[in-house]
Amino acid sequence: MDHRCYTCLVKSFDKLLESHPFPEGTKETHMKDFLRFLGAENGKIMPADISRRNHQKIREMLQTDDPYREIKIQSNNGLLAQYDHWKAKVNQSDDPFETALRLAIGGNIIDYAANPEFDVDETFDKVLNSDFAINHSQLFREKLEKADTVLYLGDNAGEIVMDKLFLETLNHPGVVYAVRGRPVINDVTMEDAQSVGIDRYARIISNGNDAPSTLLHLVSEEFMDVYRQADVIISKGQGNLEGLLGNREKSIFYLLMIKCQLIGNKLGVRKGDFVVAYNHLLEN
């Protein structure tokens, strides 16, 4: 936790409360409860774990397991409608691997927590015509070619359609695609991944948890078995990076668009930058 995280978490929880028709008294009660919780945790809990707690509270208040289900379906269908267009772009490019990689990273813009207002087409155009702020993509390609098992950590609905295109282009026989154990924000679940056809290019598993991240102290043993066996781990998005940043025990490549300047500072880049970063080459 950084002191700036507290402000962000309070704003995020307030936005969550305001986005649903709760009575004002209920909102006040839950915000006070949240502020007491933040004051008592003493910086020992990761932001993603706090976000997990907040979304558990919202699901309980709404009495629904997946408040973002319709938004996720719309995001997936919107990108699926463009799939053939982007697949043709990949196939016609001089380097299909890099083009598909760039589109997968561009898809990371679809995020209803960190960045609810986004322009997908503008982001795809930018990522196809920009330099990566951190570019370990050649090493990424080399590591993938030598890997027997690749663990791909999925992030958000919509974005996963571009993950599918990258996996189809990669055509690796040993990919395991991990999804959240139950719905949280617009993060990918088993239902989402299967609905867009990722199961045609990877074995899909649940990480057994509902944090919008990969928190190794909370994931399932099934996930940990694959994690231990994986030769390369692909960490999509900022949420997964937050849970794994500083991890040195595995070969991890972080693929994302930077949505928070605090994370940008940790990596030495700016908000809005695109990154392909190998964990063993980062200073943190």
How many individual β-strands? 7
Give me the Rg, rounded: 18 Å
What are the low-pLDDT stretches, counting only 5+ consecutive residues below 50? Answer: none
CATH architecture of the largest domain: 3-Layer(aba) Sandwich
Name the CATH superfamily classification of the largest domain.
Uncharacterised protein PF01937, DUF89, domain 3
Please give the domain count: 2
Strand order of the largest sheet: 1-7-6-5-2-3-4
Helix segment tally: 13
Query: What's the quaternary structure here?
Result: single chain
The N- and C-terminal alpha carbons lie at a distance of: 15 Å
CATH topology of the largest domain: Rossmann fold
Question: What percentage of residues falls in helices of 4 or more residues?
Answer: 40-55%
SSE series: HHHHHHHEHEHEHEHEHEHE
| Fraction of residues in β-strands | 5-15%
In one word, what is the shape? globular
CATH class call of the largest domain: Alpha Beta
Largest sheet: 7 strands, mixed
Fold and architecture overview:
The chain has 13 helices and 7 strands. Strand 5 (232-236), helix 12 and strand 6 (252-257) form a beta-alpha-beta unit. It folds into 2 domains: 3-62; 69-281, Rossmann fold (3-Layer(aba) Sandwich). The protein has helices at 3-18, 24-41, 47-62, 69-80, 83-92, 96-106, 120-128, 137-146, 159-170, 190-196, 221-229, 237-244, 261-267; strands spanning 134-135, 150-153, 175-179, 203-206, 232-236, 252-257, 274-278. The radius of gyration is 18 Å and the shape is globular. It has a 7-stranded mixed beta sheet, sandwiched between helices. Helix 5 runs parallel beside helix 9 and helix 6 packs antiparallel against helix 9. By secondary structure, it is an alpha/beta fold.
